[in-house]
Amino acid sequence: MTPTLSLRERSETEASRLPPLLAYAEQLAGTVLLGDHGRRRAGLGDDFWQYRPAQHGDSRRLIDHRRSARGDQQFVREREWQIAQSVMLWVDQGASMRFASDKGVPQKQERARLLALAIAILLVRGGERVGLTGTRLPPRRGNAQIIRLAEAWTQDVDTDYEPPEHRAMVPYARAVFVSDFLGDLAEVELALTKSADRGVRGVLLQVLDPSEELFPYQGRTIFESVGGTVRHETLKAGELRGRYLDRLAERKAKLQELCQLTGWQLGLHHTNDSAQSALLWLYRALDGGRR
Amino acid sequence: MTILAGIGFTAPWLLLGLLTLPILWLLLRAVPPAPIRRLFPAVTLLLGIQDDETVSDRTPWWLLLLRMLAVAAVIIGLAGPVLNPSRDEIGSGPLLVVMDATWAGATQWSDQSELLAVQLAEAGRAGRQVAVLRLSDPEPLVFQSAAAWSTRIPGLRPEPWQPSDKQLNGIADILDTVEGGFDTIWLSDGLDYSGRNATLDLLHSRGAVTVYQSTQPTFAVRPAKFEDGVVRLTVARALTDDTREVSLLAQGRDPAGTMRVLARATAQFAPGDEEATADMSLPSELRARITRFELEGQRSAGAVTLADDSLRRHEVAIFASRQSREALALLSGKHYLTQVVVPTAEFIDGTLSEVLPANPDVVILADIATLSKLEEAELVAWVEKGGLLLRFAGPRLAASDLARAEENALMPVRLRGGGRSVGGAMSWGEAKTLAPFDETSPFFGLRIPTEVTVTTQVMAQPDPTLADRVIASLNDGTPLVTRKTLGLGQVVLFHVTANAEWSNLPLSGLFVEMLDRLAVSSAAKIREAVNLEGTTWTPTHIMDGFGILSDAGNLPGVPGEQLVNNAIGPDLRPGIYTNENRSLAMNVITEDTQLRTANWPASVPVRGLAIEPERDLSGLLLSLALILLVVDVIASLVLSGRLGFGRAIAPIVALLMLPTDLPAQTAEEADFALTSTNELVLAHVLTGDASLDRVANAGLRGLSDTLFFRTSIEPANPVGIDLERDELAFFPLLYWPITPDQPLPSDEAYAKLNTYLRSGGMILFDTRDADIARFGASSPNGRTLQKLAAPLDIPPLEPIPSDHVLTRTFYLLQDFPGRHKNTQVWVEAAPPDAEQIEGMPFRNLNDGVTPVVIGGNDWAGAWATDPDGRTLLPVGRGYAGERQRELAYRFGVNLVMHVLTGNYKSDQVHVPALLDRLGQ
């Protein structure tokens, strides 16, 4: 097999993974479109901005006859126009995110990507610019950016517990970090303080599997991380439950504290809950932060 | 062999191994289970937590029990257990096997044969001489080796009668030929009969007697009777006394000629009942086809009763010359015939040409001389197929020229002109009486009342064949009744009238009896001795002890009287007997047969037929052990977490529940109907052009997705429809792309399409050529469309008007582009009286949904997407192209909305809202 062929084959395989995510995200975003929170923003909305004289090249459909009939000149309605904001996204691509405790529950990574892409679609529809943190995909607007985002999120990373990417933050932009935040908290702290320094505020969305919240295990067990780097053996897993839950609560409290210090918001989402409620929360969190 | 608790063991000392079980228990319980490996990302939170205690888990008690059972089963299995170890003692000396061999034992005949084989084998092992005696068919005793008899067991069969007194009297002589004593085994059928005790005494005097008798009940069916419009069947029983339900089957030929169960009834025995009845209510057509009734599950001649003519009611049609006078019933030619026929036969009414297709058994023409050519031909054909045409003379026949010069096919003889009158006031002679019936006559044996006289008759022309055709004559030798055969049927002429005008024969009982003999009325009365006297009945089919009918071969005929008086036996075998075209069933069980249970004196040991063979249980136990071990393996795997419980069980369950013989075709159809109706499905017509069909499917998928996304219509995946095969009623909308080389649907398919269109379906025809052609027959596609649509029930069409409801069912549209932009889209024309009201944006058109939408814009091409939602075909250029595609989708949405909501948006109620939207 020639290298080109194999490259093409690989890229085809990669591409085939992309559309379903995109389609799901579109559908998910579609459910929010008709919500009652007003989209008082430029874009596809119907809000009137001004009448301007029709110019050569304007479609005749756009001519407002009621206004034009008052005089001899033909007018075209123009809609509201507004300066867009940049939103930077980061989704944990680490191996630890590729975990689902049950067949009926999606992987954490799958859910995280879905939510991120859906919010990206909503933001692009609202006329914002969306990109990835880091240098890889700077914020841009338009549907093509959605495709690029979806492409970026089809690539898995094999290491466990990826640290948040905090380089090349656009000053005074907004940011969304989606992860399980089960790795080193120092990295998160570093990322948040660094963004706070640049005036970037945003949202941390912690995505957890229900089993991570409940710890429903019994008997002699060897626990392994998905990447296989960390393992822990116990003879009675049931005995560990209380102490595990304490540590989890402690970690959540720590994250909350970090957020309060830096002016971010913290959200928690379980993969067995509906993605829609998380998306709504995420959308409101970003919307509310803006005003 | 050691016997413990009824089970023998070939190696009992191996059972000591059971003592090791408690030790195994102690050994097995302390093994800890293997650790389970689990993926768990939050393991980082666990790091550093120590276990409080380090106690190993124990094996669950039920798993231990399972293993113990498996080991125990192995140990017991190896010890060689045997169920029903035989412990009979064996006698010596010659052995006589006496068998009742009657129909009552036929059902259990295989058990009897098996028992006989076992007894013969035992006798053979003991070196005893054996003789077999069948009481129902006794033959001289032959004592020979058991092995010689064993080969003859299959040849022994039960007879369909009980041993008669004559046969039992002969037993003593047969036994006298044997010297010395012998033991007797009596295989009894369980029914008592006279002379049984005497035979038992005879046998007792020669040696020990052991009786083997079945404990199964014996059932018998009495002959079926036809009463009050139902067939009544009586079931008798012996040997049992409980509540029981038996099924009776009526068997016969279906119209195709194959034997099958035509009807079924159940008879209920309450405790203590000896008899139970069941009624079958059957239409006469069905009843006439029944050949036998039998008990389900019984296999004996007693459980079968054959049906004969007595169940059959002949269908008779009577025609008489029309009378101008009404209400003179007694003078009517029909009156006396009707009196004879109605009680016992079905009467068919109607004109001759109506009646003949119903295939009556008998047609009676009373004084009808002239028939139309067609009627005559039909009548001849019917007679040749086996019908009986019975004609009566009368004034019209005498006056007509029928069968004067040459013989008529429908007259047995030629007639002389006029007829003659004797014994009247104006004639010399006296009224004539009947001559005794000839031996060859079907009336032979009937008694002739002296008061029957004939005053007027039609006369037969002397002919060479006349003598053969006369079956009754007057005492002066002139024929009274003549008959000839025609094909399979016959034509009979009474030379007198059917009313009392010419003779008083119709007033006498003889008239009824004569008609009975001619099988005009039902055969219910055959069994009366007067009807059988002087007749000879030939067996056609005889029944054996199992109730199976076989051809009678060349058995001799039986005089009619014997049929009634003699009992069933070797000389009068049960079966079907016929005489002329009447048939009579001789059954094993008659009305007065009594079933009595045989009671044996206390000195005679009575045993059941059932034999319990030795059974080796070791194989069973060892397989049980194997199964338990397999269960143990699965359970262990599940416990140690190496096998998800669901994953392990699901394939096994699936394997067990594999559907065995689902009729694939029906399942497929049901599946199609289910998927098409569970959710809304858009459909396109398969054109045979694979790429076009693919685009159509993709187009409908794109439209379905758009509908799903934008509206409350949530269609499932679209399907392609084969017009010839698939049901159309499930689909609200058919998309039909046109290709020039599309085959025309068949007539059935057009019928389906028209039904579809009339019942509210819509077809969207798409010629897909709006880029190169205008609407009409200017393109090959257009011409094909014209050809395709010609047989369809399509109303007048018009180009879509600007106020058509399609322009506003969901989106407000004014043109309907697909991949091409041509405004000419045709829909059903608005009614001519529709007028626009001043101030209203559209006309009031509250009629139905347009059944067709015709255009050429290749909509499916514009809608087409792949499963991932990417568009397949380009539309226009750049932004304008995307706008055009968007409008195409909007047209699709409007179209489906129009199909589903009808003219809802045409209602004037929406005017204000629409005006608001239209008016910007």
Structure write-up:
The complex is a heterodimer of chains A (291) and B (920). Chain A is of the alpha/beta class and 291 residues long. Chain A has 2 domains: 15-35 and 84-290, Rossmann fold (3-Layer(aba) Sandwich), CATH 3.40.50; 48-79, no CATH class. Helix content of chain A is 41%, strand content 17%. Chain A is built from 8 helices and 9 strands. In chain A, the strands form 3 sheets. A 5-stranded parallel beta sheet of chain A has the order 4-3-5-6-9, sandwiched between helices. In chain A, α3 packs across α8 (275-290). The radius of gyration of chain A is 23 Å and the shape is elongated. The model of chain A is unreliable at 1-5 and 33-46 (pLDDT under 50). Chain B is α/β, with parallel strands linked by helices. Chain B folds into 4 domains: 95-217 and 597-607, Rossmann fold, CATH 3.40.50.410; 223-313 and 541-551 and 564-592, no CATH class; 322-521, Class I glutamine amidotransferase (GATase) domain (Rossmann fold), CATH 3.40.50; 682-918, Rossmann fold (3-Layer(aba) Sandwich), CATH 3.40.50.12140. Chain B has 25 helices and 40 strands. Chain B has a 7-stranded mixed beta sheet, sandwiched between helices. In chain B, β34, α20 and β35 form a beta-alpha-beta unit. In chain B, α1 (21-29) runs antiparallel to α3 (61-78), α3 (61-78) runs antiparallel to α17 (618-639) and α6 runs parallel beside α7. The longest helix of chain B is centred in the C-terminal third of the chain and has 24 residues, at 878-901. The termini of chain B are far apart. The relative contact order of chain B is 0.07. The mean pLDDT of chain B is 80. The chains are: A alpha/beta (291), B alpha/beta (920). Chains A and B meet through α1, β7, β8 and α7 of A and β3 and α2 of B. β7 of chain A pairs parallel with β3 (36-39) of chain B.
